[in-house]
Design a protein that fits this description.
This protein is α/β, with parallel strands linked by helices. Helices cover 34% and strands 20% of the residues.
């Protein structure tokens, strides 16, 4: 982790998520930055500062799994908590498992998010998180 309060970067095309989730994360003891797309996150200069990603699965352009693969190609190992609105059973199998601490279906509880982030950050020192 980079600072006493871990930085969680949120990447989601849904404006309501980008507006509400940072406040919740701050209440839970995290620092938070929000991005409207994977491309915006990649161009932000925040990759090296990010301790964990909360990453939407389905976004226009580069999807959440696409961003995970791009980060892996760049040698970046950031733990990820995927989030998604569609409740399709096909979602979980398409998610990369190397850095994923699981997938939460929107709307998710504060407790579920806290648990997923804690798992991701506790296991951040390992290269593989098991879902």
């Amino acid at each position: 982790m980079n600072a006493p309060f871990p930085l969680v970067s949120i990447v989601d095309d849904d404006e309501s998520v980008r507006e509400s989730l940072p406040d919740l994360l701050r209440e839970l003891g995290f620092r938070a930055e929000a991005f409207s797309s994977a491309e915006q996150f990649l161009g932000s200069g925040m990759i090296d500062e990010t301790d964990c990603l909360v990453l939407d699965v389905y976004m226009p352009g580069m999807t959440g799994p696409d961003l995970e693969r791009e980060l892996a190609c760049r040698g970046q190992s950031i733990p990820i908590v995927f989030i998604t609105a569609p409740r399709y059973e096909i979602v979980r199998p398409i998610l990369p498992k190397e850095r994923s601490a699981g997938c939460l279906f929107k709307p998710f509880s504060d407790t579920a998010l806290q648990k997923a982030l804690n798992l991701a950050l506790e296991d951040a020192s390992t290269a593989c998180l098991v879902v």
